[in-house]
């Protein structure tokens, strides 16, 4: 039995509430069990210098965790004067994941920045950030379209992310912290709504995992992504 009482293939309860922040072009609060992430999208009529004059848009992301998001206070990275390697790695992952759903020609020379702020953490914060970040991105693009600033919809597909792992010798979906901290294998899958792979991160914490176990994790991820995409659609309906 998993610590949460879930079956191996069960997601945590997922809710996505939109329209959280007044001044953002798109915003949502995504709750995956006890992991809660505020995602906002901001529009800028410019692109980074390396894209100026290219006709291509840009989607990027920033990620952070509030001091009280975990059971011990996290020092603000601004206080330390630099971002941790973990923060940089996660926000680059979020940016890569979301760009996979965007036709950057159709977006035009503008930048959309997705900010993901972890309010409460119980495992899977990067996955929740990607899943909620896509909703904020979708809402920002909808705002551009409603304003008549885009001729074509640049969003090509849903993108969501979910963790899987081998806990107690059993492949399980959507690890919370109690499982993540003890899992023999931990993996994150970023996928499109149509089943395409965007990124796969996986590592063995103890014994190496087998091809059959990897296939089992992938099957769980397929199911989990389908559930998360359904939650995205429900939030936007």
Protein model, in words:
The chain is of the alpha+beta class and about 240 residues long. It has a single domain (about 15-235), classed as GHMP Kinase, N-terminal domain (Ribosomal Protein S5, domain 2), CATH 3.30.230. Helix content is about 30%, strand content about 30%. The chain is built from 6 helices and 9 strands, in the order ββββαααβαββαββα. The protein has a 5-stranded mixed beta sheet. A hairpin with a 2-residue loop joins strand 6 and strand 7 (about 170-175). Helix 2 (about 85-100) packs across helix 4. The protein is globular. The mean pLDDT is about 95. One of its GO terms (biological process) is rRNA catabolic process. Its EC number is 2.7.7.56. It is an enzyme of class 2 (transferase).
CATH class: Alpha Beta
The fraction of residues assigned to DSSP E strands is: 25-35%
CATH fold label: Ribosomal Protein S5, domain 2
Per DSSP E runs of 2 or more residues, the count of β-strands stands at 9
What is the annotated CATH architecture? 2-Layer Sandwich
How far apart are the termini?
35 Å
Count of the domains: 1
Q: If strands are numbered along the chain, what order do they take across the biggest sheet? A: 1-2-3-5-4
CATH H-level homologous superfamily name: GHMP Kinase, N-terminal domain
* Biggest sheet layout: 5 strands, mixed
Counting copies of identical and different chains, the oligomeric state is single chain
Q: Helical proportion?
A: 25-40%
Kindly name the structural category: alpha+beta
* Low-confidence sequence ranges: none
- Number of helical stretches of at least 4 residues: 6
Q: Mind telling me the C-alpha Rg?
A: 18 Å
Strand and helix order: EEEEHHHEHEEHEEH
């Amino acid at each position: 039995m998993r610590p949460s009482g879930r079956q191996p293939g069960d997601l945590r309860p997922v809710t996505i509430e939109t329209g959280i922040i007044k001044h953002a072009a798109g915003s949502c609060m995504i709750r995956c069990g006890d992991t809660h992430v505020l995602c906002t999208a901001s529009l800028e009529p410019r692109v980074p210098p390396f894209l100026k004059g290219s006709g291509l848009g840009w989607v990027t992301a920033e990620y952070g965790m509030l001091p009280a998001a975990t059971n011990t206070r996290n020092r603000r990275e601004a206080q330390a004067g630099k971002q941790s390697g973990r923060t940089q790695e996660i926000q680059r992952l979020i940016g890569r994941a979301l760009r996979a759903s965007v036709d950057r020609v159709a977006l035009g020379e503008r930048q959309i920045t997705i900010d993901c702020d972890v309010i409460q953490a119980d495992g899977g914060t990067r996955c929740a950030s990607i899943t909620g970040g896509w909703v904020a991105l979708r809402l920002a693009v909808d705002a551009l379209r409603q304003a008549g600033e885009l001729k074509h919809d640049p969003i090509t597909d849903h993108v969501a992310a979910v963790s899987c792992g081998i806990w107690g010798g059993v492949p399980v979906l959507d690890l919370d912290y109690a499982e993540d901290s003890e899992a023999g294998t931990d993996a994150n899958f970023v996928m499109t709504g149509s089943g395409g792979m965007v990124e796969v991160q996986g590592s063995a914490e103890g014994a190496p995992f087998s091809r059959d176990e990897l296939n089992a994790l992938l099957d769980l991820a397929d199911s989990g992504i389908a559930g998360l995409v359904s939650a995205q659609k429900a939030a936007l309906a």
